[in-house]
Amino acid sequence: MAQHAYSRRLPSGRVIHTTRPRDMRYAHIVGWGMEAPSQVLTNADLEAIVDTNDEWIMARTGIKERRIAEQRETTTSLATRAAQNALDIADILPSDLDLIIVATATPEYIFPSTASMVQDYLGAKKAGAFDLSAACSGFVYGLQMAAGQIQTGVINTALVIGAETLSRVLDWSDRGTCILFGDGAGAAVLQGSDKPGGVLSSVLRSDGSGWDMLTLPTVSSRDTYLQDGEHEMHRIYMDGKGVYRFATRIIGDSIKQALQQIGLEPADLSLVIPHQANQRIMDYVSKTLKIAPEKVYSNVANYGNTSAASIPLALAEAVEAGRVRPGDLIAMVGFGGGLTWAATIIEWSALPTRSTLSVNWGRRQGEYALAGVRRPLKRWWRRLMLLSPTTWIVTARRILTRRRLRKAQNEPGQDQ
Ligand code: UT7
After folding, report:
1. pLDDT tens-place string over residues 75-87
2. Residue-wise over 5-24: b if at least 16 C-beta within 10 A, else e?
3. 275 noted as active-site residue
4. What gap in Å lies between CA 97 and CA 31, rounded to an integer?
5. Exposure b/e, 189-217, CB count within 10 A at least 16 = b
């Protein structure tokens, strides 16, 4: 694509300078949604599980309570509910979606992807779907992947979800981790437009030399085949202090780098939505960027650290609370396992309006219902089609043999 210089004066007087392909479109966030399990685990509840107390947790993390998924709730079900809420706000149909990305560290299966299952539950017939593994940075990574596809005209509408059920992979005897994490999901719908704005710049980074600072071992990990594998399978391990140092080092700098790409400064930001890991880490954002603490959104007190879900969950709450308005420049920054980190700058364009009474609302419910009917029918059809002639003959013989045996058993004198 031919490049052209792009510069635009913002209402604040600042000018954005960048270059982009001539036919490039803009990727706007047009829908947002969240889903949090109703079960609450307070710091007082934790006192009965591990040697900890409310004062320590509040002082060191700022967390008061977190949500814990009930048995019937899964990463997929939380992701699907968050997605439906985001589709309501965007007022579009599941069948309008071209791509679904789910950022998660706690998928139900390594494959199929959670995204494919969400695609099926929503009835998003023409969407591609995949999971993205970048731990707590996953949502910002996913946002940039989707925005890139939209900006270059490959697709028009994408759904990016961050969803976790971390309570299922916590070591409930490790007070260094089990007090931190919670379950939940958040989602954003992105759509292409010729109107300037939306996702303006992003910084995606990784330092794999720190891979062992935050791990969740699964099949084929060295912890499985090494006799002296240090960490338990399917349990989170974290070098808390190491990750803390890393997080405070990159959290402000990565936002500055993303701002520099478009010639802006921290003072131009209306709101920063950081990964909700620890209030003390988030306090570094205002210190490093020299912005007012009120400009850094935090809901860590209510949900704890929900990994990939924390940023979209905070975004949905911030927009609904009127903290984000059209024309605002907002930054999101994620960091975590990998090590990975990612920052993005967004020029907000959508109003917080819920359109549940629209014509599309009814059509959405129809598509969800149809997906529920189609699922078992497709499965049965697939099973029938997969049976080869030999399998048909073997199955028929088996049925006949079983019938003959039953008949013989019922004939008089058989029990003598
Ligand atoms: O989402 C991925 C990114 N993750 C993060 O960003 C997490 C980053 N790390 C952190 O947030 C912090 O390091 C923690 C909250 C995990 C820990 O806070 P800290 O201030 O680094 O505490 P510490 O590990 O240095 O422990 C200080 C003391 C220790 O006792 P001693 O050795 O000084 O006697 C710990 O044993 O606090 C003790 N301690 C606790 N006490 C009560 C550790 N955990 C607890 C606890 N309750 N839950």
Report:
1. 999 999 999 999 9
2. eeeeeeeeeeebeeeeeeeb
3. yes
4. 12
5. bbbbbeeebbbbbbbbbeeeebeebbbbb
Give the C-alpha separation, 160 to 101, whole Å: 5
Token digits of residue 146: 């989707």
Exposed, middle or buried, 54 (CB in 10 Å: 0-12/13-18/19+)? middle
Instruction: Please state, in angstroms and rounded to a whole number, the distance separating the CA atoms of residues 241 and 281.
Output: 11
Q: Alpha carbon of 156 to those of 34, 84, 175: distances in Å? A: 22, 18, 45
**Thinking of the domain 26-356, which architecture would CATH place it in?**
3-Layer(aba) Sandwich (3.40)
Verify whether ligand 1 is closer than 6 Å to residue 378 (CB atom).
Answer: no
User: 186, 33 in Cβ contact below 8 A?
Assistant: yes
Residue type (1 letter), 260: Q
Distance between CA atoms of residues 199 and 26, nearest Å: 7
What is the token pair recorded at 179? 């007090």
pLDDT in tens, 28-54: 999 999 999 999 999 999 999 999 999
d(CA 248, ligand 1 centre) in Å: 15
Q: Residue 389 corresponds to which amino acid? A: P
Atom of ligand 1 nearest to the CA of 46: 48
> How deeply is 173 buried, as exposed, middle or buried, from its count of CB atoms within 10 A (0-12, 13-18, 19+)?
exposed
Against a cut of 0.70, is the pTM above it?
yes
CATH 3.40.47.10: which residues of the chain?
26-356
